[in-house]
Amino acid sequence: MDYTVVSARSKLLKKVQNLGDSASSTVGFLPREAFVDYAKKGHILALTEDDELLAYIMYRYRKNTIVIVQLCVSPLHKGKGFAKLLVNELFEREKDCISHMQLSCRRDYNLENFWMSLGFTPIDERKGRATTRDTVLTTWIRRNTECQDIFALLSEVDKQRTQVVVDTNIVIDLYDGSNNETKTLTQSFLAGYAEFRISKYALDEINRNDNPTVRKAHRDYAKAQFALTESTDSDLFKTIQADLLLQKPSVEFSNTWFDICHIADAIAAGAVVFITRDSAWLNTNISEYIFAKYNLDIMSPGEFVNSVDELASPSDYAPIKLAGLNLDFSKMQHSDYPTVLNTFFDKYGEKKNEFDLALRTWMASPEKHSILLVKSDTTPLCFVVTTRSENRLYVNTLLVATGAVRPSLLDTFVKRVAFKILDSARKDGIAQIEIATEKIPDDTVKSLMACGFTNNGTTLLRIIDSRVISPEQVRPIPLLHADNPLQIAISRYQKDRSAGKECKDLVFSLEKALWPLKITSSGIPCYIVPIRAEYAVQLFDENLANDHVSLFSNTKTEPALSIENVYFKSKRHSVPCGPARILWYVSQSEYMQTGAIRACSYLDNVETDTKKTLFKKYHRLGVLDWSELLAVGGKSDLISAYGFSYTELFDHPIPLAQVRNFINNPTETFQSYTKIDEPAFTQIYTAGVYGGSHG
Q1: Does 328 score more than 70 pLDDT?
Q2: Most buried among 161, 426, 493, 585, using CB within 10 Å?
């Protein structure tokens, strides 16, 4: 028997298509073109003997997770263990780069024992959508303890789904089962990505049918299979509706009027995709206008399925959503006391006087406790109490005003606060942060763990290692349990390095988990990347806009110093690939101390594609608006996106003349990226952090 990756030109592809078609009632319907798309990506693995197809597995990626789309065995060879062989083979092939394997399976298939025998664990279940009968889908995951991405191991698989609103024509298609493109929405794996809903206007539109039998059938199906959108902001709906009516002429109660109501309702409810087969709304000027202004993508069923991996789930980091909040990070003042008491007491405990006593105690000892208050204009959003002991920072309390922070913003907001605390602690010489978890909701804990905080019993622990060390100095961390993912990763690094294996990906992950640690002789590529001052301010360099940044100082520059961000460059001047370390050279401008290297980041990935594709994928990071992005790269439609994270601003910007000395190039002007060796990177980095020629 042989394992074969099925290509788009392989004769084996037709056999895979035929087997998939014959099993569509159980594995889900896919048009033949979809099999071709998976084959082009190399995401079909087949098991063959001689020229016979025994079984195949088809999959896609979601972040660090492989999602199994179809697992199909030839009827002639069922019961021979071929499904297990394929799953295990795929797992072995991909285990260096995935944290989990995931699938959705109908409960009435009674395959629980089979999935458990393969190491899968059920973590969630939900009602199946877009089918003509009631079903329950169970989500199963198989963890990979050998994953080299520490952050993926620290975080649980994202069980939140993106809200997707479907048009009335999609509802009717699914009921009739007559449209093959729409039938692709019935695939079980989509349950892990999307929560399909309808607006109440779909029921109004169905009610217009003159045939009472058809009208009742469509209405009953829509109500049984789809929840209604939950928009409570009627004023927002009316504003969007009026705007769209101006953009596209309509007649009241025509299809266009209903379409506008559907779309306005979807936007007001926080949906990110609207699925329709109406060509008037697909890939037109009005759809581009709606995406650019409201971040709602209007797609056909086929377009949705093909791009589902790129959906931003509710828990995806999206700093753009915070931009309008005018966040203010500052120490709590006595004048804030009444508002803080009334806003947070019910998050702290059951009784108001309990929080009142604690609050007065903290405020009475400013030499011992620091209180960070995060506001949106004058509205308190987050309350953080910290206690410092030598180089340790203990977070006694971290409370979020969930009523003031919408659920869709919560993950992004918590991560923004976490990185603010983390960066401030780094500047203040803190070596470890501990957060008491007793009064912190599970969602907040999950967001903190995505920032490198690790569960250490009753607290979350974040190590901040500000050293530049040799590989020999990488040692286990005494504070962590032996089975902690970070501790396991350190042990694996020591073992792999002793065996002479390349460890650059693991070093990359370790440095981020212990940020701002730098390990020499890592093999990680290093680059100097030029950036204009105005983009640096927007993306990360709040020091250019503020003369001094101190612990819990105020800043209204969003998304400066976000954990994750993206920078667009012309394809011609793009760094070849990540992961890498990058030093940001901020070009000379009217800002003070420009024409210098001012920061260091981790380059997670480099992606080249069309402007529209990259804008859709990275718009949530709040980098450029559509008109600004169009100017990148000139007339070429292809540009590159740098995904970067964990930016460290230098206290001592390094001017051009000094940088030239470090890289031994007296004429370098940094018009494009420049690759440098690790010794040069280390010299520049230590000079930026410590000043002078510190080594």
Answers
A1: yes
A2: 585
Calpha distance 315→443 (Å, rounded)? 9
Burial profile 553-589: b = 16 or more Cβ within 10 angstroms, e = fewer: eebebbbbbbbbbbbbbeeeebbeebbbbbbbbbbee
Neighbour order of strands in the sheet with 162-166: 227-228, 194-198, 162-166, 273-275, 297-299
Higher pLDDT, 98 or 5: 5
Q: Where are the beta strands (DSSP E) in 450-570?
A: 454-455, 459-463, 468-469, 518-519, 526-531, 564-570
76 contact partners, CB below 8 Å, separation of at least 6: none
- The CA distance from 505 to 493, in Å, is 10
Q: Which two tokens stand for residue 628?
A: 């600004």
- In the chain, CATH 3.40.50.1010 covers 162-310
Instruction: Return the CATH fold of 162-310.
Output: Rossmann fold (3.40.50)
Does domain 2-146 fall into CATH 3.40.50.300?
no
> Minimum mean pLDDT among 84-98, 143-157, 374-388, 587-601: which range?
143-157
Is there a contact between 244 and 296 (Cβ–Cβ < 8 Å)? no
Helices 504-513 and 485-498 cross at an angle (nearest 10°) of 150
CB–CB of 384/372 below 8 Å? Answer: yes
**CATH label, 526-690, candidates 2.30.130.30, 3.40.50.790, 3.10.20.90, 3.40.1190.20:** 2.30.130.30
Residue type at 692 in one-letter notation: G
DSSP conformation letters of 336-390: GHHHHHHHHHHHH-S-HHHHHHHHHHHHH-TTTEEEEEEEETTEEEEEEEEEEET
Integer Cα distance of 532 and 672 in angstroms:
12
Chain region(s) in the chain for CATH 3.40.630.30: 2-146, 319-464
Query: Whole-model pTM?
Result: 0.79
Neighbour-count burial for 259-270, b at 16+ CB within 10 Å, e otherwise? bbbbbbbbbbbb
Q: Which residue has the tokens 């800043």?
A: 555
Number of H helices, E strands in the chain: 25, 27
Give one DSSP letter per residue of 526-543, joined into a string: EEEEEE-HHHHHHHT-GG
Is residue 86 within 8 A of residue 54, CB to CB? The reply is no
Class of domain 319-464: alpha beta
